[in-house]
Design brief:
259 residues; extended; mainly alpha; 80% helix; 12 helices
Length: 259
């Protein structure tokens, strides 16, 4: 065994690392005014929460059916809108379709800006502009889907077979005709797969979007928390988990059939 592999050789480095971590943790605690004693002082509240949370009020389930349906509808409509707008922009973001690398890079930059805006921030902005409701949720999901799916599509376009493109150009086809005849048929299965995946992601996201007023079952979750109805909170979370599990299973099955 070499000296550098022994405990004694690594001990100073490990001690310095431990001290550095402790200093950073202490600095974070000091900056955030966090207090372990304050946390322990709220044990009664934590016990009360868990006691009510572990006793789900299943009589509340019938009142959740309509919001659940609206949540799924929001996800599907938002995904369709976002994907519909994402397809042409994805084509513009690849030089295979535009034959202009600078223009395609500009489009990619703009799509990158759209993707950097978090879902909850989008929802909060639309709530401020449009107001509380399902329309806000649909627009939020559509913008999020637009950013995500457009990237997936133009990355898919860049992996296609170039043979059909060259053949189409050889007969004098325009750029639009080349995109429609040679590129689109090759990426169509991928587009369908990405759209299905987006629905799966958006169903999960829409349950949280409602928490900031974007409609759906999240609104009821927010209300139940505000009213300290933790028995209803647990039921809502169970329903959300069931929806996500069901959507995951359906999405995976459909994507396997498409691909």
């Amino acid at each position: 065994m070499k000296l550098k592999d022994t405990v004694h050789y690594k001990l100073p480095k490990q001690i310095m690392t431990t001290l550095l971590v402790l200093v950073l943790v202490s600095a974070c605690i000091s900056l955030t005014d966090a207090s372990l004693f304050e946390l322990l002082g709220n044990l009664d509240q934590m016990v009360l929460f868990l006691k009510r949370f572990m006793q789900p009020d299943f009589s509340y389930v019938p009142q959740l059916i309509n919001p659940v349906i609206k949540t799924i509808q929001m996800s599907i409509v938002g995904t369709v809108l976002g994907t519909a707008f994402a397809i042409p922009f994805a084509f513009l973001a690849t030089k295979f379709a535009t034959e202009n690398n600078i223009f395609s890079q500009i489009i990619r930059f703009l799509l990158g800006i759209v993707r950097t805006v978090p879902n909850l921030l989008l929802a909060a902005l639309f709530v401020a502009i449009i107001g509380i409701g399902e329309v806000t949720g649909i627009l939020t999901i559509a913008v999020f889907t637009f950013g995500m799916v457009s990237q997936l599509i133009y990355e898919s376009i860049e992996t296609i077979d170039l043979g059909p493109i060259e053949a189409t150009k050889s007969i004098g086809a325009s750029r639009l005709q080349t995109a429609g005849w040679a590129i689109f048929p090759q990426v169509l299965p991928s587009i369908i797969s990405y759209a299905i995946y987006a629905v799966e992601v958006n169903v999960r996201a829409s349950t949280i979007l409602g928490y900031v007023g974007a409609g759906g079952i999240g609104v009821l979750l927010s209300t139940a928390l505000a009213q300290d109805r933790y028995d209803r909170v647990s039921v809502i979370i169970i329903i959300i988990l069931a929806i996500v599990f069901l959507c995951d299973a359906i999405s995976e099955s459909l994507r396997k059939k498409v691909m």
